[in-house]
Write a structure and sequence with these properties.
Length: 459
């Protein structure tokens, strides 16, 4: 068993204890970050005269050789090693001898793992941001193509007022734009380098922590060594942001699932993103949307787990913190997969324009506009509200929409109605008259789309 700390101990660790303590099964994901951090560390040590240039070059060549061999499969990371740090150091010593034993000068595994986790999370934040941006671009394209695709807007899952598909999609654009903002904030807040903090109290070696931070593209070094090795706020922030992304994806998925039902028929999901039934040949199931909805709980669980782990930990480092990795890795992989698959499903989905518009008409979504029409004719709003309620009851009894009623039928309920009521309750006019910022009218939406395009180009 390859260990970095055996000098103090007089007998071997029990195998079960060793297995329970070891992290190599999951922190092997860090091999690139661990080697990158080690190269920066020895570069700084040589600059400070703590290592010779020959030792630096030997160590860096050895580290690059390990990196290449792991990437090509020539060197396997196995459970022989306790963690990724011991794997790298032991293999380095095997390859270059005594110089390899100087790799760990001026650092602890505590600041080393803190660095590896930050480097890993930072890399993943960039990839997550790219995936969210791709989803935003897909949503934006749908918005551009559906300025005049009329559909019902809902409250309480009841048809409320007519909107457009562009407007509906715009709501999700705003959600995922905020998600990108959260990822950006996390990156900025976490981008300080913990390396050089030692176990918790720094080191007596004359390290140049600013230089190490610069080599690793951080904005600077962390300013308290105890916090440096025990901080997992950035993990909690990331898991919170990922939970919010999944919540948004789940809401979107729920609507896709509803819209895909026979009763709605608003969308047709592409065959590539659907499955059938083993017994019912007519079925076309929205499995991707359902799985995204289901996997949301998995990401929430990761957030609750790390919050629970961290809540009682005194300063500074505690082994409990090892629990941050597996759940974070799983949450990141889950969200990346969900974003990629959902974006593909959305990009290939067909929207049934006529069904959507008919649904808006048959759901009396233009009832508010009929009331506004009466108010415009001098009828008090409360009276207008009652008159339109009678119209709706009449239509339900006769199986009509407001658009289908004759003028005589309108006048039977209120003599105030004239022929211009048909313009007032047409889907097109109901939507297009709403042109304040944020409303579904085409002119308002064009301005929003232009803003969205500018945002995507600049960010």
């Amino acid at each position: 068993m390859a260990q970095l700390w055996g000098g103090r101990f007089t007998k071997e660790t029990d195998q079960l204890v060793y297995n329970f303590n070891a992290s190599i099964s999951f922190d092997q994901k860090f091999y690139q970050q661990d080697i990158r951090g080690s190269i920066a560390h020895v570069t700084m040590l040589a600059k400070q005269g703590i290592l010779t240039t020959e030792e630096r070059d030997q160590i860096i060549d050895g580290l690059n050789g390990i990196l290449e061999d792991v990437k090509t499969g020539k060197l396997e990371i196995t459970s022989k090693y306790e963690d990724i740090h011991s794997f790298v150091e032991a293999n380095l010593i095997d390859r270059i001898g005594e110089a390899g034993k100087k790799l760990h000068t001026g650092r602890s595994r505590n600041d080393q793992v803190a660095l590896d986790m930050k480097l890993y999370v930072r890399d993943e934040v960039i990839q997550l941001d790219e995936l969210v941006k791709s989803l935003l671009e897909t949503i934006e394209k749908i918005m551009e193509e559906n300025l005049h695709t009329y559909m019902p807007g809902f409250t309480h899952l009841q048809k409320a007022q007519p909107i457009t598909l562009a407007h509906h999609m715009g709501a999700y654009f705003e959600m995922f734009r905020r998600d990108r903002g959260r990822l950006t904030d996390i990156y900025k807040r976490m981008n300080f380098c913990p390396l050089g903090s030692g176990a918790l109290a720094g080191t007596t070696y004359p390290l140049d922590r600013n230089y190490t931070a610069e080599l690793l593209d951080f904005d600077g070094p962390t300013l308290n060594s105890m916090d440096s090795v025990s901080d997992r706020d950035y993990v909690i922030e990331l898991l919170s942001a990922l939970s919010t992304i999944m919540m948004h994806l789940s809401r979107f998925s729920e609507e896709v699932i509803i819209w895909n039902t026979n009763e709605y028929g608003f969308v047709e999901i592409d065959d590539a993103y659907s499955t059938g039934s083993s017994i019912m040949p007519q079925k076309k199931n929205p499995d991707i949307a359902e799985l995204v909805r289901g996997k949301t709980g998995r990401v929430y669980a990761a957030l609750m787990s790390i919050l629970t782990t961290m809540k009682g930990l005194p300063l500074a480092y505690n082994k409990d913190m090892q629990e941050d990795k597996e759940l974070t890795f799983d949450a990141i992989d889950t969200v990346k997969g969900c974003l990629a698959l959902f974006t593909g499903m959305l990009a290939t989905m067909k929207f049934c324009d006529k069904v959507m518009e008919d649904s808006a008409k048959n759901g009396f979504t233009n009832a508010t506009d009929a009331a506004d029409y009466l108010v415009g004719k001098g009828v008090p709003f409360r009276d207008a509200h009652g008159i339109v309620g009678q119209l709706v009851l009449y239509c339900i009894d006769k199986n009509l929409s407001l658009d289908d009623m004759s003028l005589e039928e309108y006048k039977t309920i209120s003599p105030v109605f004239e022929a211009d009521i048909y313009d007032a309750v047409s889907m097109k006019n109901c939507v297009e008259r709403r042109n304040t910022i944020g409303a579904p009218g085409a002119e308002a939406m064009k301005n929003v789309i232009a803003e969205n395009q500018k945002y995507l180009k600049e960010n």
